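Ticket reopened. Same input as before:
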Amino acid sequence: MIAINEKIKLAKPFLKWAGGKTQLLNEIEKRLPDGFLTGQITTYVEPFVGGGAAFFYIAQNYPEIKKFCLYDVNSDLVNCYNAVKSDVRSLIKTLNKLELEFLPLKQNSRKEFYLKIRKKFNHEKINDSGVKIAAKLIFLNKTCFNGLYRVNGKDEFNVPFGGYKTPKICDEKNLLAASEVLQKAEIICGDFTKSRKCINKKTFVYLDPPYRPLSATASFTSYSKDSFTEQDQIRLADFCREIEKKGAKFLLSNSDPKNENKEDHFFENNFMEFSICRVKASRMINCKAYGRGQIDELLITN
Ligand SMILES: C[S@@+](CC[C@H](N)C(=O)[O-])C[C@H]1O[C@@H](n2cnc3c(N)ncnc32)[C@H](O)[C@@H]1O
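Engineering reply: fixed in the latest deploy. New output:
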């Protein structure tokens, strides 16, 4: 097997996204079903695409896969993918303009500029084209604190200014490469269950839902105004059974509750007919000490 760092990775996620899977690509790749190389699997479905680390990797390294169906409930994110796919030149032009206005400013004025764009992003969407909204999202993602995407109960993006010295706002080369890869993909906004229409026995489904919080206080599930609840995790287990019935293969990643509580058997109980294994990963987004070190992450397959 060729090492990950020797494989093609020209296009990479164009947004930093909480829960990004770049560090787990190796483990994901080890668990791809046999049908990936034999031509039996021709479609890749990702119902919680987020930044798309696994999608970009697979789309560039497995030419046997001809069709990619990507879903996410976050409409700003889906709009951004579609702008990169369909109108990347206008997007680059708009983003370049924002970068040229922002970078020469002093830190205080940069913060004011950031807050102005954030306000427009939240309140002027009706007047903006898809490309302009996408450019604002990328700008905010590159200049906000930690590249987070977080919204409040009114669905307003509320991440504070990051204050970085030289953020790369318009990565033209990567946007062009990403646009090319996205030509093979359909990107749809909606709940993960909507992806069922793309799933059949020639499909591989990679599911990376918002994590089941390790503890009541460690939650980072506000990718959208509706958080992903325990009930949604159960709905997801039912969806995995539906995938299995259709004869498709899946891989699901999630947080391991046993990091915090050895007696928490949520996954053993809800995914009992599937194979559950644990791999090490480092967790960045939360403030507890264990949240930054190496913790176990679950990979569930059928
Ligand atoms: C852990 S992130 C995915 C990270 C991604 N694998 C990456 O590498 O960046 C989870 C994603 O699920 C999306 N999401 C949350 N609830 C959803 C739902 N009900 N249906 C579909 N997507 C949902 C969020 O908007 C978020 O982008």
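Residues 4-73+190-301 form a domain with the Rossmann fold fold (CATH 3.40.50.150). The chain has two domains: 4-73+190-301, 84-173. Please confirm and we'll close it.
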